TrEMBL record:
Annotated protein name in UniProt: Hemerythrin domain-containing protein
GO MF annotation: an example: metal ion binding
Record keyword Heme present: no
SUPFAM superfamilies named among the record's database cross-references: Hemerythrin-like
Organism superkingdom: Bacteria
Provenance organism: Adhaeribacter rhizoryzae
Similarity field: Belongs to the hemerythrin family.
Length: 160
């Protein structure tokens, strides 16, 4: 089965690139678990990633896309954002350490959410938003992404 790469509107491609970073977040969690790393080390990465990547990404998607269209698919994405935020809180607050099951659940949920947005939601939004709306969204995203964010978490637990 050949899967063709998805062609994304140049105006929202920034968000798709960030999805790659989100998939790496999931991969790192899974690698750490495979290598049986102390889950407290993995837990420390979760708020770092939230504060430095995911929080702004969610906010931009919600403000620039979901709330402008506000249909059933956008509502589904908003609900998923809330569920991911809840899972992140559970990971951060779990004592004495998050379980591998909880960390896997977070990684799986983020992974599935990204795939939903890329395969269903973004193609839908590219159809329902006008070219001018997409252009305006692209301009706003470019302005907020003037300085690229890098993931330089100091503990590369995924390498062991």
């Amino acid at each position: 089965m050949d899967i063709k790469p998805l062609k994304r509107s140049k105006h929202i491609v920034i968000l798709s690139r960030e999805h790659h970073t989100g998939l790496l977040f999931c991969w790192k969690i899974r690698q750490g678990l495979r290598k049986e790393v102390d889950t407290n080390r993995i837990r420390a990465y979760v708020p770092y990633f939230w504060e430095n990547h995911l929080r702004q990404h969610f906010q931009e998607e919600e403000e620039q896309l979901f709330l402008k269209v506000n249909d059933a698919l956008c509502q589904k994405a908003l609900q998923q954002h809330q569920e991911i935020k809840s899972l992140i809180e559970q990971v951060i607050q779990s004592t004495p350490a998050p379980t591998p099951n909880l960390l896997n659940q977070l990684a799986d949920y983020v992974d599935n959410h990204i795939r939903f947005e890329e395969r269903e939601l973004f193609p839908h939004l590219e159809k329902v938003l006008t070219q001018q709306e997409l252009k305006n969204i692209g301009a706003a995203l470019e302005q907020s992404h003037a300085t690229p964010v890098t993931d330089n978490f100091p503990d590369a637990f995924w390498t062991r």
